[in-house]
Amino acid sequence: MIRHIFTVSTGTLASRLLGFARDALAAALLGTGPVADAFLMAFQIVNVIRRMLGEGALNAALVPAWMRVRDSGGALAASAFAGAVIGTASAALIVLAVIVGVAMPLLIALLAPGFVGSESLQLAVTDARLMLPYLAFAGPVTVMMGLLNAQHRFAITAFSPLLFNIALIGAISVLLLLHQDSYFAGLVMAATVGAAGLLQLLVLAIPSRRGNLARPLRISFNAEMRAFFRKAIPGMIANSGPQLLIVAGAIVASVAPAAVSWLYFANRLIELPLGMVGVAMGIVLVPEMTRALHDGDTPALVHAESRGLELAAGLALPATFGLIILSQPIVRMLFEHGAFSAADTHATALALGCLALGLPAHVLIKALSPAFFARGNTMTPLWATLKGIVVAIVVAVVFGRIFGVGGIAVGIAAGAWSNAFSLIRNIAATFGFSIDATARRRLPRIVLAALLMGGALWLKATFVLPLVANAPGVVQAAVLGILIASGLAIYGLLLTFFGVIGWGEALSALRQSRAGDLRT
Questions:
Q1: How many CB atoms neighbour CB 167 within 10 A?
Q2: Sign of the CA dihedral running 153, 154, 157, 163
Q3: Cα separation of 454 and 275, whole Å?
Q4: Which residues make Cβ contacts (< 8 Å) with residue 489, sequence separation at least 6?
Q5: Contact 129, 101 (CB under 8 A)
Q6: Of 73-82, 201-210, 250-259, 478-487, which gets the smallest average pLDDT?
Q7: At what angle do helices 182-210 and 2-30 cross, to 10 degrees?
Q8: 79-95 burial, b if ≥16 CB within 10 A, otherwise e?
Q9: Rg of the Cα trace of the chain?
């Protein structure tokens, strides 16, 4: 399982790094004015749907259902089931795209009430409509990824999302070289989103056709399909909690100029550790836990849940401290170029520090939700997500009026913790926590190591950063890289000193896999 998570995390890391490059270029091109707010609001709508369908979300319903059909009816029945899912989901998404396109002015007005009466409203409507073709490709892409993941073919699904960012980076780079104005640039970038979805579909179609994973393609609304989508839709919404919370924050932030952009760029930094850990666990843990429950293999179930929680704590906590302590220099290095000003850096860094308070909760949700999904329960995570959104909006409205964008970010973090605590209470009240003795020993030590690393990083940053405040950007970037590397080194040494994991054990875990685990 560790090998699979490492594979998915590596692909996700590469995608997130390309995403940073994409957003840094977009910030330099668009800045944080009305055009940027409009584009980013539209992009978040499409991005929520993309994340809702992908990044492990559909696995919550697809993998258990596909495995049941395969075990009871064989490979041909499983392929026919997958073909029906692809055909039906694609048709439904095309219809949805048409309806949303017609109703887009109303949708934008509801999601960004602050845009009403300003030029940002029509800009956002136009940008969102240009992005909608992506939805036609999202359905088959997501089902193909789920099927390949169910067969432990994680590599191609982990790295295929890179095409989305590569296409956008190419388009933005050309626009920068041609010195196009921000209005035209926003339209071109929006249109590129649809083309990026087509590229990903073409790449995934090759191994899917070769393995006859989904044939024949057909549209079906029989009882089996209706039962599948009744479970799939709540699971997809629940798995999109982080993105829905950002949209909730954007609703509140839309009344303040540039606040939508500040929240978006801050959240992009949160998504790096969240993507590496949370998405990887969502993709890998659901098949592992479903298989263990199906086979009645309690030790395998306990092992999967325990290692998931260890990874959640072990990677989320140091990332949280690092983002809070180094928020200002990180934002400055990545985004303060072109139209992105020093004032934008300050506001974005403030939002980043506050959003980071909710990062452990986001990753904890990703670690706990598979315990429900593997048991076919998608409604409990859904209600926890909806409750978290309500909490986020209420806290963001109250704190946002007092503290601005930082208060809105605190509301988003509060919504994440509300979601996490709801899942913890439900697990304790229903099937209980399956944590082995090793995890009970390691988890407190992981927390202590992260706290000590955070303290050491804060001391170093407090002393070093003022010394290079007026240095060239290259020097500041080098110092920031050294601080991050030293923090990671300290954390690794502390984990080893506390006996959480040894280097030999880590390498052994990565090497343990069945032949063909990384086949593409």
A1: 20
A2: negative
A3: 21
A4: none
A5: yes
A6: 201-210
A7: 160
A8: bbbbbbbbbbbbbebee
A9: 22
- Asked whether 163 and 196 are in contact (CB, 8 A), the reply is yes
* 8 Å CB contact between 240 and 384: no
The three state secondary structure string of 340-372 is CCHHHHHHHHHHHHHHHCCHHHHHHHHHHHHHH
- Helices 34-53 and 2-30 pack at an angle, to 10 degrees, of 160
Q: Which among 332, 323, 315 is positioned nearest to 354, based on CA atoms?
A: 323
Q: What is the pLDDT of residues 220-279, one digit of tens each?
A: 888 877 877 777 778 777 777 788 888 888 888 887 778 888 888 898 888 877 766 655
CA–CA distances in Å: residue 297 to residues 2, 89, 372, 429, 440: 18, 33, 17, 22, 21
Query: Which of 166, 177, 162 shows the shortest CA–CA distance to 28?
Result: 177
Place of tokens 């930082």: 406
CA-CA distance, 451 to 443, in Å (whole number)? Answer: 13
- Could you identify the residue written with the tokens 């300003």? 118
Nearest Cα to 2, choosing from 501, 520, 500, 511?
511
CA 270, 276, 279 angle in degrees (round to 5)? 95
Q: Residue ranges of the domains in the chain?
A: 2-435, 437-511
Please tell me the distance from the alpha carbon of residue 350 to that of residue 30, in angstroms, as a whole number.
21
Q: What are phi and psi of 445, to 5 degrees?
A: -70, -35
Both tokens of 182, joined, read 């921000």
Identity of the residue numbered 341: S
pTM: 0.73
